[in-house]
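Q: what sequence does this backbone want?
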């Protein structure tokens, strides 16, 4: 008997180590080369740099998806820590994002265990740890990065309040008060929070309500102060969103488009093809979305089936509970997740603005828990293990193969090579930074050049970020650094336009040096004599 216990303990440890190794592999493999650093990250890096240099301490965070609404500053404040530790190198941000994702993996297991049972926790953690789509977003450090963490913790605390442990409302006010300062997608929980608080009102003391509300308002105090100091900017923006729906400047989307993005996210959660390009998979280049994987039909069917099992479990809980020895807390867990999916469906129906896949980051941990529950239900069948084990192994292996065979156009490695090359060529000379190309030119280059080469006198990003500079130059340097990250997968008209722009630059300047790193061409140009005389 002792030998059996030792053997079981040994196998449990080996299994746990394997899951951890899988999670580590998906989050740290090729991490230095596949750092996603674009315009949003550049914006946040400039905000953080100004905080740490003492130039500006903001009361707000970033603009929320061009709504005119500003988020609270909690994420920007917290981002200052890794920025400081790694001297502004984006690698530090990517490392912290991957570490946070590991924490979420363990939370998926812990919360799955507490809300359901140990088996559901294990299945859910395996799914979340091995999803290539999840790990792709988990490598990115920007304001939506903490959303899976806050979604899980907020949902779990809501579950405890539903159980009657109302003191957890205080902790919920902390997690949710921070979450709404990261991304507005977390507002999906708001109707649920209001309903559960209302349903538990008889058990809530005035003291708990006052403490919870005070904590939440205290966390929002910077943005409240900003409102009073800046003529209620957010309030006016919210009014425009709710009232002026016919504004021509607003990008609207059809319900069909939003539904397709939601369904695609379900499929991609399980499957991204081999030899994918993560630059395309980000889906943030509208012109290249047609090249992106939109989810395998089988993977979509599997996820929809798991949602069906979830709903079936709720409607047939009495029969299921007798068979699997489930308690009422499991029923509350299932109801909570069903509500979350219902609210997501309502969001897709009624939110008529543009929707991106990362808007559903809050849902990803709950997708893992849903699939984990479905696998547990199947596992409980007489021959269930013969379905669950092959499915799980195939899922892990397929995602690992996709990870090892995929690439990243305009990768961070290529960007770093460009930076090293330019620094060696300029030898400390002042320069202007220009870039041609479509969305690939918004690759965070202005900040990267400032950090690794030297502050450019002028750049093509000045129209976006000059309000964040405190070292503007009026000089016209003799050198121009021209980047050409043209994506030739674009249509011919777009490629032709940017090629013409490149020829204009090259014909008006003297070329000193040129080189190509991956998909990025770089030219070191000397400004023409005419330009220098005009500047004088």
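A:
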């Amino acid at each position: 008997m002792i030998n059996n216990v030792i053997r079981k303990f040994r196998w449990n440890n080996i299994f746990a180590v394997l899951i951890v190794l899988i999670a580590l592999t998906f989050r740290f493999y090729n991490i230095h080369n596949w750092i996603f650093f674009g315009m949003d990250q550049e914006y946040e890096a400039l905000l953080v740099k100004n905080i740490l240099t003492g130039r500006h301490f903001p009361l707000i965070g970033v603009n929320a998806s061009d709504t005119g609404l500003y988020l609270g500053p909690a994420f920007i404040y917290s981002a200052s820590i890794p920025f400081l530790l790694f001297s502004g190198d984006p690698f530090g941000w990517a490392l912290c994002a991957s570490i946070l994702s590991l924490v979420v993996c363990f939370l998926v297991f812990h919360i799955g265990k507490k809300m359901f049972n140990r088996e559901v926790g294990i299945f859910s953690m395996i799914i979340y740890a091995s999803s290539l789509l999840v790990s792709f977003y988990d490598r990115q450090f920007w304001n939506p990065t903490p959303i899976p963490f806050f979604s899980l913790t907020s949902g779990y605390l809501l579950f405890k309040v539903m159980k009657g442990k109302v003191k957890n409302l205080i902790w919920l006010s902390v997690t949710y008060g921070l979450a709404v300062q990261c991304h507005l997608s977390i507002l999906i929980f708001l109707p649920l929070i209001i309903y559960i608080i209302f349903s538990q009102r008889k058990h809530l003391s005035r003291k708990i309500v006052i403490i919870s509300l005070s904590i939440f308002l205290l966390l929002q105090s910077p943005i409240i102060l900003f409102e009073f100091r800046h003529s209620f900017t957010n309030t006016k923006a919210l009014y425009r969103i709710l009232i002026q729906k016919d504004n021509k400047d607003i990008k609207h989307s059809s319900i069909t488009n939003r539904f397709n993005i939601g369904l695609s996210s379900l499929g991609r959660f399980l499957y991204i093809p081999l030899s994918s390009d993560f630059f395309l998979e980000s889906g943030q280049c509208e012109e290249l979305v047609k090249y992106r994987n939109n989810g395998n039909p089988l993977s979509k069917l599997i996820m929809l089936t798991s949602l069906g099992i979830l709903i079936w479990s709720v409607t047939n809980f009495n029969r299921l509970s007798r068979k699997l020895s489930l308690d009422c807390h499991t029923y509350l867990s299932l109801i909570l997740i069903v509500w979350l999916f219902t609210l997501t469906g309502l969001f897709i129906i009624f939110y008529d603005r543009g929707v991106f896949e990362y808007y559903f980051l809050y849902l990803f941990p709950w997708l893992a828990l849903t699939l984990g529950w479905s696998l547990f239900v199947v596992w409980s069948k007489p021959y269930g293990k013969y379905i669950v084990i092959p499915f799980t192994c195939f899922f892990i292996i397929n995602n690992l193969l996709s990870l090892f065979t995929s690439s990243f156009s305009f990768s961070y490695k290529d960007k770093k090579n460009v930076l090293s090359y330019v620094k060696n060529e300029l030898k400390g000379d002042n320069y202007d930074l220009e870039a041609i190309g479509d969305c690939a030119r918004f690759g965070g280059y202005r900040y990267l050049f400032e950090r690794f080469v030297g502050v450019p006198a002028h750049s093509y990003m000045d129209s976006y970020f000059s309000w964040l500079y405190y070292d503007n130059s009026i000089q016209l340097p003799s050198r121009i650094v021209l980047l050409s990250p043209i994506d030739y997968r674009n249509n011919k008209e777009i490629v032709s336009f940017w090629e013409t722009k490149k020829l204009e630059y090259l014909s008006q300047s003297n070329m000193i040096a040129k080189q190509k790193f991956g998909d990025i061409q770089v030219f070191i140009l000397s400004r023409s004599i005419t330009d220098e005389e005009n500047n004088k």
